[in-house]
Write a structure and sequence with these properties.
It is built from nine helices and six strands; from the N terminus they run E-H-E-E-H-E-H-H-H-E-H-E-H-H-H. With 312 residues, the protein is of the alpha+beta class. It is globular, with a radius of gyration of 22 Å. The longest helix has 26 residues. A four-stranded antiparallel beta sheet has the order 2-3-1-4, sandwiched between helices.
């Protein structure tokens, strides 16, 4: 179990990242897999009533900025990540099998509107931050920016594989079309801009994107970029030349904020729940199954052992 529990919070947005095993590049140059991932994002965003602000499908990881008003981030991430993992062998014949994700997803809270906006732009500018292209318009993969600022609702076909496989057990004539569902992927507008028209919002966001792109380019020590042509020749499943790596218990921030005061306040909230959770967890594991856990946390698993000895 991680030392830091993932606390569900209906009031605060968060930033999630999940990386493939060994950081292998399975999400490159495969439009069908890309559509499948976006379809699952649409399906589970609707099922769990998620406010999705941004989504990036990079070569070896998926990350997104989202708000979970129903305090169900764990359920969303469980279903989304497991569906993506099952889609890999369907769309990538070279995949050898086994566990797909390197570990559980990481999640950091975004306590203010400015923080949501900052990590929205961090997400859409991933190809530039990572030195792939100098302009997101040149990135050959999917980028959510225009969909997000334009209020675009993209429709995706998602196969209900469980229902299909259950039906196929009793009839060989079943068709995938009979178990194909249509979902719309729609992004939520960044908070604080509700008074703008769609056109005004798009113009302002493009202006901000131009400014932030220029800032990223200015701060980069290496001025060269991989480029769209080289990216289009990357073989799925290959290993990147450079990638971020971390162990399960490496330090990770719990709060991401552009404001020190806001970050300190959010950390105080988080660790007050965390220490209360530790105390309750200890009592629970010692046998007190009636202990009341703090709101937004999950009880640790209870292990049972079969008794095989003789009964007196």
């Amino acid at each position: 179990m991680s030392y830091h529990p993932r606390i569900e919070c209906e009031e605060v947005a968060s930033f999630q990242t999940t990386r493939s095993r060994n950081s292998e590049l399975w999400f490159v140059n495969c439009p069908d897999l890309e559509r499948a991932v976006l379809g699952y994002a649409a399906r589970y965003s609707k099922r769990y009533e998620v406010k999705l602000y941004a989504l990036a499908i990079e070569g070896n990881h998926i990350q997104h900025v989202a708000h979970f008003p129903k305090a169900n981030r764990a359920q969303f991430m469980r279903d989304f990540n497991s569906s993506v993992a099952r889609a890999i062998p369907r769309h990538q014949p070279r995949y050898a099998g086994g566990r797909f994700w390197a570990r559980r997803y990481s999640a950091e809270y975004l306590p203010g509107d400015a923080d949501i906006e900052n990590w929205f732009f961090y997400t859409v500018l991933q190809p530039v931050n990572d030195g792939l292209v100098d302009d997101i318009r040149n990135y050959p993969g999917y980028n959510c920016f225009e969909d997000a600022i334009g209020g675009v609702a993209r429709k995706f076909k998602v196969i209900n594989w469980k229902a299909y496989n259950d039906a196929k057990r009793w009839s060989a004539s079943v068709s995938l079309e009979d178990f194909t569902e249509i979902y719309e992927l729609r992004y939520t507008r960044l908070p604080g801009y509700e008074n703008l028209s769609q056109a005004e919002y798009a113009v302002l966001m493009r202006k901000k994107l131009k400014e932030r792109t220029a800032e990223v380019l200015r701060r980069r020590s290496v001025k060269s970029f991989v480029g769209a042509k080289a990216l289009s020749s990357v073989r799925p499943g290959s290993s990147p030349q450079r990638t971020k790596r971390s162990a399960r218990y490496d330090h990770r921030p719990r709060i991401l904020s552009t404001c020190g005061i806001r970050k300190s306040s959010a950390e105080a909230w988080y660790f007050s729940i965390y220490f209360d959770y530790r105390k309750c967890s200890k009592q629970y594991r010692l046998g007190d199954l009636t202990v009341s856990f703090p709101r937004g946390t999950y009880k640790p698993p209870v292990f049972t052992i079969a008794y095989t000895g003789a009964i007196a």
